[in-house]
Design brief:
The chain is α/β, with parallel strands linked by helices. The chain has 2 domains: 3-63 and 156-343, 3-Layer(aba) Sandwich (QueA-like), CATH 3.40.1780; 67-143, QueA-like (Thrombin, subunit H). It has helices at 133-143, 183-192, 230-241, 251-262, 306-315, 317-329; strands spanning 27-32, 37-42, 55-59, 61-63, 67-72, 77-87, 90-95, 105-107, 113-119, 125-129, 168-171, 195-201, 224-228, 246-249, 276-280, 295-299, 340-343. The strands form 3 sheets. A 9-stranded mixed sheet has the order 2-1-17-16-14-3-12-13-15. A 6-stranded antiparallel beta barrel has the order 5-6-7-10-9-8. It has a two-stranded parallel ribbon with strand order 4-11. It is globular and about 65 Å long.
């Protein structure tokens, strides 16, 4: 399957540079699969499209300020982008600049420093800090900056790049479909009888990486840490058996639910009654048969991205491109801070 099949043209003026305020005043494109019907609305009217006993599944991961500005022993500036702790004081990172080598020492403020330990594939590095992972995260909260995608040119406050229900620290990118939810909207959904469940998937750097192969079936998906606790797993399995609609908030929730509850994308499948904790890397593209979710809330995604391929697997590639064409004509805002879609 050719990568070029997932391309489309987007005017740069439609790439959102900041979130809508209030957040739930973003626009909402609703697509009913069975009726093949598109509706145009606002996100604050989401309750009108959901039924009592529908289950919304949120990713409660929390973004941390992963960009650290340091100095080399020569005095020159250098940026270290924290990706994930590996073991002990070792972290997987990206290092800015052209001059990088094993053994290089980098110093930051707050007494934090690291030494480059090894070079990995895909431009990644391992470094060893002089602090534990927990200490590194605490210091990053003080001295780090928000790790926004490259298409966002404006400086972004961390609070703007965080969902209102973010709880568990570990992501270098936000589950952006959740940006549209406000506390008042969540309250309205609760009062309607919509059931809330929370899973955790820590979004990794792979979310920024483009697909580099012409045949998408040859693409290797990045692995990300995921956790679904046993009580959540039991409630989700029960809801599914009872015929309640499972609606995933964001592609990260989609991938987690499909991987954990259909035994796809990881070597040690979860027992759906005991939950799951570990690494998953499901790559969902056209031809995949969805087994667990009944709908999703998502944003408008980049051309040729794995996220666009996932949406294409759910409603068809041609339908996605047709919907995107209509959205562009109606001046919807795209990408992380853009408008949302409800597909069911």
């Amino acid at each position: 399957m050719k990568l070029s099949l997932f391309d489309y043209h987007l005017p740069s003026s439609l790439i959102a540079q900041s979130p809508t305020k209030p957040r739930d005043h973003s626009r909402l494109l609703v697509y009913n699969r069975s009726a093949n019907k598109i509706q145009h609305d606002h996100f604050y009217n989401l309750p009108d499209y959901l039924k009592p006993d529908d289950v919304l599944v949120f990713n409660n991961t929390k973004v941390f300020p992963a960009r650290l500005q340091g100095r080399k022993t020569t005095g020159g500036k250098i940026e270290v982008f924290l990706l994930k702790p590996v073991q002990g004081k070792i972290w997987e990172v990206l290092i800015g600049g052209r001059v990088r080598h094993v053994g290089q020492e980098i110093k930051f403020s707050q007494g934090l420093q690291c030494q480059v330990a090894s070079k990995l594939e895909h431009g990644l590095w391992q470094v060893k800090f002089n602090k534990t992972s927990k200490e590194v995260l605490k210091i990053a909260d003080k001295i780090g900056s928000t790790p926004t995608p490259p298409y966002i040119k404006k400086k972004t406050r961390l609070n703007d790049y965080q969902t209102v229900y973010a709880k568990k620290t570990g992501s270098v990118a936000a589950p952006t479909a959740g940006f549209h939810f406000t506390k008042s909207l969540l309250k309205k959904l609760k009062s309607k009888g919509v059931q809330f469940e929370y899973i955790t998937l820590h979004v990794g750097f792979g979310t920024f990486q483009p697909v580099k192969v012409n045949d998408i079936t040859k693409h290797t998906m990045h692995a990300e840490f995921t956790e679904v606790d046993s009580s959540t797993a039991k409630r989700l399995v029960k809801a599914k058996k009872q015929g309640q609609r499972i609606i995933a908030v964001g592609t990260t929730s989609v991938r987690t639910l499909e991987a954990v509850f259909t035994r796809a994308g990881h070597k040690s499948p979860a027992n759906p009654h005991t939950g799951f904790k570990g690494w998953i890397n499901p790559f969902i593209y056209p031809g995949y048969k969805f087994m667990f979710i009944d709908g999703m809330i998502t944003n408008f995604h980049l051309p040729k991205s794995t996220l666009l391929m996932l949406i294409s697997a759910f409603i068809g590639r041609k339908k996605v491109l047709d919907i995107y064409k209509k959205a562009i004509k109606k001046k919807y805002r795209f990408y992380s801070f853009g408008d949302g879609m409800l597909i069911y």
